[in-house]
Every structure is written in C-alpha cells, then in structure tokens.
C-alpha cells in the first residue's frame, strides 16, 4: 500500500509493525521486495515521492551536502552530494549496475595488507548472490566458467604463462531502462503487497532508544514541505533496519547519541571507497593485438535464452533478435573482461585486490590502463558530525567525511601497476608511459585535474563494520548492531573489506540475507 506522510495528522504515531525499513535505495528496496507478501507487517520509509526518476528534488538533496577533510577536499570537493542521491530508488538512479561478487579471497585477512576479515565465509553468501543476480536480471551466477564467457564474448583472454600474477575475470552491467532503477522495476510488487506500507515523504531525524541505548523504542520523523520542516510523526516497530546509504547510516546513529558505538569508538571509522586511477598508463605493443583478445576486453551486449527445462542450461543467443517484442523473454545485459590478480599473487604481495580495465587504441597496438583498487581499512579515515555546519531544513549537523589513504594504499596502487606492466611486457608490450605518478609519499598523488588523476570512485563502504566480536566492529554477522537488540544495518557501511567489485550486488545479497533472517527471528 502507498501512503503519503503529508496526509498524516501532526504528531501521528504509526505503530503495529513488525519491521520498519528506513531508506529505499538498493538495500531498502531489496529487503522490501523480499518481504512483500511474507507474514511480517513492514513499513518502508521513503525520503522521496512515487514519481521520482533520475534526479532528486533539490531541497531534499541539500540534506546530502556536508563537509570534507583536507585530502578529500583536494581530490573530490563535491564528493558528498555528487556521489549519492536522496530520492526514491536512492543512488541507483545514477548507475548502470556494474556488478560482480566479491572474490572468496576478499573475505580472508591478508597478511602485510590488513588483518581484518569478514565474519562470514564466501559460501554463506553464495546462495544470496544467486538471488541478487536474479534481482539484477543477470541470469545464473557464473563467473568461473571462462570457456562459456569466451564463447559468449567471441573473445578470449591472453594465454596463461607459468608465472602469471594476473588473469582474466568477467564483469556484468545492466543498462536496460527500468531494470536498474529499482523503484521502477519493483513498483507494482511493493505497491500491491498487502503486508507492506510504503510511506512517502518520510524523513528519519533520529532514533529514540532506552536509557542504556540497548533497545530502539521509536523513530522521530518529519515530512519536508517546500524546502522546510513539515509534519512530525513517529514510527514504532518490533525491529528496525537503517538502509540510508553508506554515509547517512553512520550519521543517523551519530545524531542519535552515537547509538551502537563500541568501546573502541569505531562508529564511523574505517570509511573506504574504491580509489581509481583512470588513464594510469599507456602501453604500446610490438604488433596489433588479435581481435579475439581485444573482444574479450570490449563491453558487449549479451542475450541469454532461458533454459527450456527447469534446471537446464542458459543458451547464448548466437543470432540477433529480429522481433523486438521478444527482447524481454531473454536476459539482456552487458559483459566484458578485466585483468585481476590471482589469489596466490595477492597473498604473496600482501596488497589490496584490484582490477585493470584495458581500452585498446584505434591503432589496435596500444592500450590505456585504468586501475581500480581496494583500500585498506583505516580507522583514521572516518565519518563524523560537523557540529559547526547545520543542514538547511532540519538544522541538524551535517556529515563530515575525512577520507584518507595511507602508505598501504599507495603500495597497492604502485604494485598493481607494476604487476600489470610486467604481465603486458610478457605479451609483446615494448614501451609504456606512466601518466600518473604514484611514486611519492602517502599524501603525494597526482591530483591536478588532468588525465590520470586520482578519483574517489562512487562506493561508500566500511564505517559500520561487521565483526564477530563487539570490540572489532559495529554490527554482528547478522547485520544487527552488537549493542542494540532490535536495530539492523543494510548497505555497504557494514563491509569489513571492499575488494575491487562494485558493491551493489553484495549490498543486495546481504539485504536479502537479512530479510530472510528477520523472517525467522521476528515472531
Ligand atoms: C555515479 C554512480 C555510479 C554508480 N555505479 C555503480 C555500479 O555500476 N555498480 C554498483 O555496484 N554500484 C554503483 N554505484 C554505487 C551504488 O549507487 C550504491 O552502492 C547503492 O546505491 C547503495 O545502495 P543503498 O541502498 O545502500 O544506498 P542508496 O541507494 O544511496 O539509498 C539510500 C536511500 O536512503 C534514503 N535516505 C537517506 N537518508 C534518509 C533519512 N534520513 N530518512 C529516510 N530515508 C533516507 C535516500 O533517499 C535513499 O533512497 C554508483 C554510484 C554512483 C554515484
């Protein structure tokens, strides 16, 4: 059912729900869709309206302005409001759903790079990755069968050599209209589910809990009317999930008296992105690279025909579709190859995971190297409240993001580029030009606005890390705050480590896992 908070009388208390999900981006919508028509009564608070598409209302988006630490100020001063959208569907309205699961090696500690690990094994998440893949309309979860992909892409990765530290891997993307704007894709399911109330123009201000901060009692919320604070209302439920994005989830806990902080003051700490060096180097080869190898690295549209029998194999469509009406009977998405380190090389090198995108030049004998790598969890990289700056609608302190890279991150980037160049020199590269200088100290990056500068990427991870022990993180392996018995977090803030894969497939997998868990534990 759709409901508009504007229609509620002032100071209404909405109650009687099993679960309140706050935030309707990738995480909140995935949970709501999974819980639609379940036995739980659920309310989804949406800071936006049913017709939201593409870009948010500017007043609402003004709540996403904040302040940045000195390093982030140099790299990406508009990071806070550029890289997230405050609207129905959230930041998914920005994206084309590039997707890949984390690698099994990302779940383990990596000596020399980081001690932290996920308190989950990859296998515990695998079934949910399968569901997340269906959610994203990507078909079967198959990243390992490279001969299948080489057939599909009419291409193949470079031939392996005995001492290779790199190998080919597959990325997916979903650009089909409506399929990656989750508020559009799941509109009817959410609207028609009898157990689900979708409440629009519902903005969470803070979370009220008992005197010990161990149990949430209610949420204090407000509408926004013409850029000003509107009606106040409260929501009561048995359990609550914050799904407000990687930065806002931390800020809302901080606005609620540091709710869920641990003895080591880790709330908001360990903030990570996937740093990016676009055009990091150009490499020239002694001959034209064969078409089939260039094909592997070229993004291509894929059409898969679902199996005729349950449990059968998806068929790759080898002929173009002539009838456009048939398109939606087939899975349509994009896929392409990237270069990544082997798990053995990662362990040996003790660096962050990374991926290299190769863009071959028109001469077919040169390639531009784009590097995207894993940041080490670092407690000095953090989200805080800026007590000196207030948001323009509610007058609450804005988020201050002091994103930092350290020497481990610099070493990861440097070694990643060296390993990539070694790999390409083994395959006929004869010269290279480094466009980005990564040789200096930890603060010394090429930051001038020219090709090859450092970028932040758009993925907000790690400020509410998942851990087995309460002293090591903020949420437990079920995504519940260690210190609060009925409050859960959905989204990439819980990632203890980030690998190189774009985060949303993992966000959706974790959200579906959390929804399943709540079906079992509530009632
Ligand atoms: C340009 C760009 C491209 C991207 N491309 C990709 C990609 O290809 N692949 C990929 O995996 N990831 C990509 N991302 C990242 C991706 O968008 C995020 O990982 C994803 O949207 C996070 O989902 P989320 O639900 O956690 O947060 P969001 O999608 O940000 O949703 C948060 C929701 O919470 C709501 N909210 C916030 N505060 C409140 C409040 N106080 N009360 C009520 N509601 C609130 C917001 O309105 C929003 O609806 C991209 C990001 C950007 C910026």
Report on the architecture of this protein.
This protein is of the alpha/beta class and 523 residues long. It has 13 helices and 20 strands. Strands 1, 2, 3, 6, 7, 8, 9 and 20 form an eight-stranded mixed beta sheet that branches. Strands 10, 14, 15, 18 and 19 form a five-stranded antiparallel beta sheet that branches. Strands 5-13-11-12 form a four-stranded antiparallel beta sheet, sandwiched between helices. Helix 1 packs parallel to helix 13 and helix 5 crosses helix 13. It is globular. The protein starts with a strand and ends with a helix. About 1% of the residues have low confidence. The structure holds flavin-adenine dinucleotide (FAD). The site of flavin-adenine dinucleotide has 38 residues, from helix 1, strand 7, helix 9 and helix 13.
